Amino acid sequence: MLPRELQHDTIALESKPSASIHYSFAKCQGSQQSPHRLVVFLNGLMTDKSTWLPVMAGIIRANQDASYPPLLAYDRFRQGLTDDRDPQDQGREPGRGHDVFDAVQDLHQLIGQLCRDKLETTMEQLSIIFVANSIGCVIARLYAERHPGSVAALLLLDSMVANSDFDWWPNPDSHDFDPKILPVDVTVEVLREQRAKIAKIFAPDVINNEGLDRRNVADLLPHSDGPLLQGPGGRRPLVNVVEHDAERFASESLKVCVAPFPKFQTSRGED
Questions:
Q1: What is the Cα 179 distance to its own chain's centre?
Q2: If both were cysteines, with which of 8, 42, 110, 228 could 132 make a disulfide (CB 3.0 to 4.6 Å apart)?
Q3: Helix-then-strand count for the chain, H and E
Q4: Alpha-carbon gap, residue 202 to 207, rounded angstroms
Q5: Whole-angstrom Cα distance, residue 9 to residue 167?
Q6: 127 within 8 A of 147, measured Cβ to Cβ
Q7: pTM of this structure
C-alpha cells in the first residue's frame, strides 16, 4: 500500500485545456531550504509513472521523522493513466504529432502550474532535481539546457543515447566487417537478426503509443558532453549517470529480443 502522503490527481495544462495529465505528488515534509526544491521523476518510453511510485513511497517512509522535498511523477500524453492524446497531435502525421522539445514545454508548464497550486512558490525560487530513465534523460537534459538556472541535479538512469540512431552493433553486411570480433556463441546470422529486431523496437523512426517523434533527438542534443549546463546560482548542476547492470539487462532483453545483447571485442581486445 502506498503512503497517504502520496496523492494522485489529474491536471489540464493551461495551453491544452481539452486534455488531462495524470500525476502523483507528495508535499514536502520538514523544513525546506531556499530556494525550494522539487524532485521530478521522468519515465522512459516503455514504462510509466507507476515504476516510480515504490521509489517515492520509499523516500517518504524512510524520512517520516526527518524531511524530504516535494516529489512529482506524471504520465505524459497517452502514457500510463493519461488516456488523452496531446491536443497538438491533431491534424499532424499519425504517431509523430509532437517531439521531445514539446514534451519539455509541457513539463515546464506542468511544473509552473504545480508551483502555483501546490507549492505556493514561483519557478524563479525553485531548484529542480530530475531522476530520469531512458528517453526521460533526454527530456531532463533538454529541459536543463533550455531553462538555465532551474535544474540543480540530474540522476540519469540507463539513459537513451541522444545523438545515436541505435545502430551500435557491427554491420555484418559492411564491406569491412570482420567476423572474428563476434563472441563464440554469436553467429553472423544471429547478429543480423538481432540488429533487425533492435531497429524495429528502438530506431528513432519507430512510432510509439505516445506519438512522441524521436527522429530529431540527435539534432536537439547532438553532443554527449555539451552544452555545459547552468544550475541555480550560476553553479553547474550535479550530474550522475548510472548504466544498466549488464547481466540483468541481458536477461531482460530476452523478453523482447529473444537473444541477449552480445558483447563485442574492441580493437584493443576489451569486452
A1: 35
A2: 42
A3: 6, 9
A4: 9
A5: 40
A6: no
A7: 0.89
Distance CA 86, CA 14 (A): 13
Amino acid identity for residue 93 in this structure: E
Q: Hunting for cell 523496437 — which residue is that?
A: 201
What would the pLDDT profile of 190-224 be if each residue is shown by its tens digit?
A: 999 988 888 888 899 999 999 999 999 999 999 98
DSSP state letter for 49: G
CB 146 within 8 A of CB 240: no
- For residues 239 and 8, what is the distance between their CA atoms, to the nearest angstrom? 29
128, three cell numbers: 529542480
Q: Which residues contact 148 (CB under 8 A, 6 or more apart)?
A: 229, 230
Specify the higher pLDDT residue, 269 or 169: 169
Which CA distances in Å does 221 have to 101, 129, 173? 10, 20, 29
**For the chain, percent helix, then strand, then coil, each to nearest 5?**
30, 20, 50
Residue 58 burial (CB count, 10 A): 11
The pLDDT assigned to 270 comes to 38
Give helix 188-202 / helix 246-257 axis angle, nearest 10°: 80
What are φ and ψ of residue 119, in 5° steps?
A: -100, -15
Mean pLDDT of 9-13: 98
